[in-house]
Structure formats: structure tokens, C-alpha cells
Write a structure and sequence with these properties.
Two copies of one chain form a homodimer. By secondary structure, chain A is α/β, with parallel strands linked by helices. The first copy, chain A, has three domains: 58 residues, lambda repressor-like DNA-binding domains (434 Repressor (Amino-terminal Domain), Orthogonal Bundle); 135 residues, Response regulator (Rossmann fold); 135 residues, Response regulator (Rossmann fold). Helices cover 44% and strands 18% of the residues of chain A. In chain A, strand 9, helix 12 and strand 10 form a beta-alpha-beta unit. Chain A is elongated and about 90 Å long. Chain A starts with 9 loop residues before the first helix and ends in a 9-residue tail after the last strand. At the A-B interface, helix 4 and helix 8 of A face helix 4 and helix 8 of B. The structure holds a DNA duplex.
DNA sequence: CGATTTCCCGTGCCCGTTCACGGGTATTTG
DNA sequence: CAAATACCCGTGAACGGGCACGGGAAATCG
């Protein structure tokens, strides 16, 4: 019906419905000024003829600019979120020719205040669509509430909040990533009696740890497969560089022989630096995320494996489906999109980007 | 210059160059009838103003259908090439709105004759562009020669032939994939004194083995890291199902204790079936490619890891860049595109597709 | 030198939608 | 009953590029 040489134009519809194309257009974008009778007739004809507006003509004629705003945490070059930013930029280029502009609004992930400000900034001048990487549940709920009121569609990136107005979610299965990581760390090897779980992160007061699910997956795997292994948690505040070394000296560095080390956020390179400096080579080290510094640690052999996700691709997909939605009202195929988990080691990391 | 609100139209260019838009258009699609002087002037102005034709206007005006033909081996559902086919279908949907149609022409990879036929079929009605997954070097050279003559641009998929007229190549780094595979098979484990390299493939007379480079990478790794390990080659013709079992009984099945098994093509699931049937559970098995049957073997634990590539994504990228080329004469960024190598195990395979 | 050919180039319509504008009825108001 | 007000609806000019057509100027020919 609407396949192949679909030559049905708005004029055909108009003629068949006994009205003018202006009226058909008004019906299509239901912007009123049409009698109930005409509207029904037009709708029926559209259905019968299988009319689908020509995308090109439509976009050519309505040169309106659309804006997608993306709310993500701020970052230093090379940090985790920079890959997301890169994806957003790539996507921006792709959709720019559809008259869609991408803007990122950044916030300090350690400050609710800052997140709140970012949200207000978005609301000041409501865009056509919003992508948000949420850290603060409560605040995010308020934010998306206001978006809904304003009729602005939104999607979640990376993390998801318990809400049901969102159009789509793009992220990683966190629990499974922890499980996978545990398998890579141990798989088929003689496992030492002690495994160090290092956490170098600022305490976000009152904020749930985004890697908590990952940790849970890891723990469950260990409990199931190696119940006797002792797991040492090493918690370090990253403010003080020296503190990291001191703390690692007391734990990982204090022991001899085969040890396993794992981290759940993206900062495994800090541990790698430590191990290199101290000349420790008998640790099996596994971490997360494809930062440049982590890759270097892979290449040098200090870190054996990384579990990574193409957060850039994730961002691209999110922007694309938002664009599809805005441009042609096409709602997304899957609401929750889990991106693939990649295992990187020194032999395949060079082909990753 | 050409970023943001790029409002430069063909009329602006015409005015600035002191010609009419007709002339600019002729230059753009270099269809002649333009004096050398005008042409240069126009080209210069285009560069200076950063003019990029409006895709919509262009497509709206020239409603011509373009056809991209893809020559790939035929396959049974679930086999290696089915993923490529899927990618082609996905891509077809994406570019259909630009008036581009995708058609696949399949050939029997064990018959030169069949390949030759496929090529003639393409030449009978030359398309706007061609993607080809070549198996026969000589024949492919003849084919692309004829394509060049006809002015039809072409790209290579999966394998590359020694030729220099191709627009782009999308594939996997074969040698490195073998290296990676060896690392996964052995990495950090006690390695048995014997490793079985199984090859279940029809002999393509006179045809070079596409997995040869992979084998070489594997061997080099082993030579470098485990020079004392004996590597047994097990070559089986797949015609006879029983032959597979017989041969495996004589080799892999004949031994007791920890053994390693590896295959370089996509048929590791055949070995998995054998091992399951015989109740053998102490083999470490690593193979290639994300077939449904291979994934099942991963899930059941018979195969421990797969090295895979997103051949679907590879196909999508190839089609996209061909489309970009055809639509806007944009030549591809990278000529040789190596796709990432993925490591799959039972914990991440469910998130792969 | 006039006639013909070649080489270039400008003009104008077309593609299918969007949307501002203005006009024509039916209804209400003074 | 004329005038004002709703309420609907048709018209036509964009939007930016593709391309057929035809015509003017220069070069070639007889």
C-alpha cells in the first residue's frame, strides 16, 4: 500500500477528499481551522490512499531549527564522559543537515545545586527534546516532570531513573557487567585467597553509587564460584594523590605473590600508575571503561583487561532516535536499549576506536 | 565556515561567481558544457563559501532511484553470511528514504562459475554502485575492471583483493584476530602439551584459504609464548557428518584430561555438538563468529569464548559510505576500515545483538 | 562575407510541503 | 436588516536544486 513507488501526494489526497491541500496540511499537523466533517473525510482518504508525506519536501519547506539539549556531567579531557561528549558531537554532525542542533549542558556530578542549575537553564528556553544522564533521582524526577508539562520529550542516558514518561533509555546492564568482570578476573585461573576491590571516588553525600549494581554482580559471581576467597575493600578519597599511594602500600603493596585487583569505576589507571611506580608485576588487574589512560595501561601490560562500552555509539543512537522522533514522529523501537559490553585486552584494544 | 547555520545556497554561489545557478549545477555534477574559466571560478567560490548542497532539495528535485548491488556468498539461515545480509537489510531501510535501493546477488563460494555468473548478472544492468565480498582473486579483478570501465564505483567487504581502484574496504584484521584468539585460548592458564587446530571446510580447489592469515597469527603467538606446545592439525571434510565424528574420535576424543581446541572459521558449533554428544567437558574451546549456534554453545558452556566481528555493522557502514558517495560525491574518510574484534563469552553474549 | 556549427550559458518550470494571507459563508450582534 | 464576528477554507509564494530548452557569441566553413 505505501511501499515501492508511493506516488500519492498531498494534492491527490486533497482532490480525493474534495478539499484543498491547505486543508489537508492543517489536518496533518492538526493545527485546527478545519470542520469536523472535512477532517474525518481527509483522514479517511489518507488511510485509503496510504498517503505518506514526502520527507524531503516537508523538511525543505519547514526550515525550522530544532534543538536537542543534553544534560551530562562535566569532565576533564580523557575522562569517562568525554567519550559520550564525542558521540554527541558525531551525532550533531549527522543530524545537522536535518536542521537539528545539539547542545550540551554540563553539571558538577558532586553537586545537586549544579544539577538543579543545569535543569533550570534547559527550562529557560525549552528545546525540542532532551537527553539527560541523571545522577540525582529526586531532582531528575522534578526535572522530567516539568519537561512533560512543557510537552518536551526526553530520554535517559547511561543511568535510568524510576519514572515512566521517558521515551527511551540507552545504557549498560550494570549488574551483568560486574558479573562479567568477575569472570574475566578469575576465569580458569588459580585464584588467590585475596581479591582487592579498590574504590577511588569522592563521596557524593546522599547520592547512590552508580556502580553499586556492578559491585553486586561481581560479589554474586564470587560468592557463587569462589565462596572462600576473601574480598578486601579498599576505599580511597581521590583528593589526595599521596593518600592513594599510602593506602595502596598498606594493602595491595603490602603483600607478595599473586594478587587480583579490580575497580568498578573508570579510574583503574590510577592503580596502574601505582603498580608501575612500585615495580609490582604479579597483580592481575581488571577495570572498566575505555579511557586513553586505561588503554595505555592495557598496552603496557599493567592492566590485563577492561570491560568497556561504546558510550559514544550509545550517544549517537540516542540522538538519532530522538531525531527520528522529532522529525517524523517515529517512536523508538525498543524503549530500554542495553549496549553491548566489550572485553578489551592488549591484542584487540587498538581496533576499538 | 561551513558549520552552524550554513545558509549558503546554490544561488549565492552563482551570484558570487558571476554565473547562473544552471552553470553551478553543471559544475557540481560535472556534466560538462562549462568553460574552464567558469568552472574554476565556481569551484573556488564553493570552497570559499563552504557551500554544501541541501540534501533535501536535491533529493526532492531529482527523484531518481539509485541501486547498490551487493555480491556475497550464499548461505543457509544462521550461517556466517546471514549476519552480513542482515546488515545489508538494515542499511537498506536507512537509505531507502534517499531513494537508494539495495539488492544482493549471491554466489556459491565453492564455484568460480557461480561467481562469474553473479558478476555478469550485475554487469547486465549496471547499478550505481557495487559492494563485493570476493573469494576468487582473478575473477574479481576482471569484474572490478569491467566496473571501472563502466564508471561504477565499488567497495570490498570482508576480504580485499590486490587492486587499487576500490573506493573502500571494510573488514577484520585477520592476522591479529588469530593472535588475539591464541591469547584468549591460553591466557594465564596451564597450557596442555597439545592443542588441536580443527578445520572443517570444503577444499576450494586452487582457492586461497581466507582464514590463512588468522592461522598465521595464531601460530606466531604460540611460537612466541608457548614454543613447546605441540599443535595438531585436524582437517575434516564437512560433506560427511559421520566423518567429523570419526575424525574427532581419533584425535580430540582419544585423549584424556585438559585439552585445547580451536577453529578458524565459523563452524566451531560442530565441535561443540560433538563434545556434548560424547559428554566431554574438559576441553577449552575457542572459535570465531557470532552464529546463533555458536552462541548457544557459549551459553551451554561447551565453548568458552568466541572472537567475533559485527559483520552487520560492517555492512551498514559500507552501504552508508557508498550512499554518501553516490548522493553527494563525498569520498570515504578512511579507505581501509578495520572493524573492532569482540570477545564473547557466556556472560556478555546476550547483549551482543 | 554570410551560413553553419560548436561551445557556453541563462531562464524557468518542476519536485511535494508549509504556511501566511485573504476571502467567502454562516452565525451573531446592535 | 445591516454590520460585526466567527469559522472554514483555498490560493500562491516560498524552500533549494535539477534539468530541459533555447538562445547568444565565437569559431569554422563554403
Amino acid at each position: 500500500m505505501n511501499n515501492e513507488g508511493n506516488k500519492v501526494t498531498i494534492n491527490d489526497v486533497a482532490k480525493a477528499a474534495g478539499v484543498s491541500k491547505g486543508t489537508v496540511d492543517r489536518v496533518l499537523h492538526n493545527r485546527g481551522e478545519v470542520s469536523r466533517k472535512s477532517k474525518e473525510k481527509v483522514l479517511k482518504v489518507i488511510e485509503e490512499l496510504g498517503f505518506r508525506p514526502n520527507l524531503y519536501a516537508s523538511l525543505l519547506a519547514s526550515q525550522k531549527e530544532r534543538l536537542i539539549q543534553c544534560v551530562i556531567p562535566e569532565f576533564q579531557p580523557g575522562e569517562f564522559w568525554s567519550l559520550t561528549e564525542k558521540g554527541l558531537q558525531d551525532a550533531a554532525q549527522l543530524v545537522s543537515r536535518y536542521g537539528i542542533r545539539i547542545e550540551t549542558v554540563k553539571y558538577d556530578q558532586y553537586s545537586v545545586e549544579s544539577f538543579r542549575n543545569a535543569c533550570s537553564k534547559v527550562m529557560d528556553n525549552p528545546p525540542s527534546g532532551v537527553l539527560v544522564a541523571p545522577m540525582y533521582g529526586e531532582e531528575t524526577l522534578k526535572f522530567v516532570g516539568r519537561l512533560s508539562e512543557a510537552g518536551v520529550p526526553y530520554m535517559f542516558l547511561d543511568s535510568k531513573i524510576d519514572d515512566d514518561g521517558y521515551l527511551a533509555y540507552f545504557g549498560m546492564p550494570m549488574y551483568q557487567s560486574g558479573y562479567l568482570c568477575a569472570d574475566i578476573l578469575t576465569g580458569g585461573r588459580d585464584v588467590p585467597e585475596k581479591v582487592y576491590v579498590v574504590r577511588i571516588a569522592r563521596d557524593k553525600m546522599g547520592l547512590s553509587d552508580p556502580t553499586a549494581a556492578r559491585r553486586a554482580g561481581f560479589m554474586d559471581f564470587m560468592k557463587g564460584h569462589y565462596p572462600d576467597v576473601q574480598i578486601d575493600n579498599v576505599f580511597i578519597d581521590p583528593k589526595d594523590k599521596a593518600a592513594i599511594y599510602t593506602k595502596l602500600d598498606q594493602t595491595v603493596g603490602a603483600e607478595k605473590g599473586k594478587r587480583f585487583v579490580v575497580m568498578f569505576n573508570s579510574r583503574i589507571h590510577l592503580v596502574a600508575d601505582y603498580l608501575t611506580d612500585r615495580g609490582i608485576h604479579d597483580c592481575r588487574v581488571v577495570g572498566f571503561d575505555c579511557l586513553e589512560k586505561n588503554i595505555e595501561a592495557l598496552r603496557s601490560g599493567t592492566v590485563q583487561a577492561l570491560v568497556a562500552q561504546h558510550t559514544d555509539r550509545q550517544a549517537v543512537e540516542a540522538v538519532n532516535s530522538m531525531a527520528d522522533y522529532l522529525l517524523m514522529g517515529k517512536s523508538v523501537a525498543k524503549r530500554d536499549n542495553f549496549i553491548q559490553m566489550d572485553i578489551l585486552n592488549m591484542y584487540n584494544c587498538d581496533y576499538y576506536l
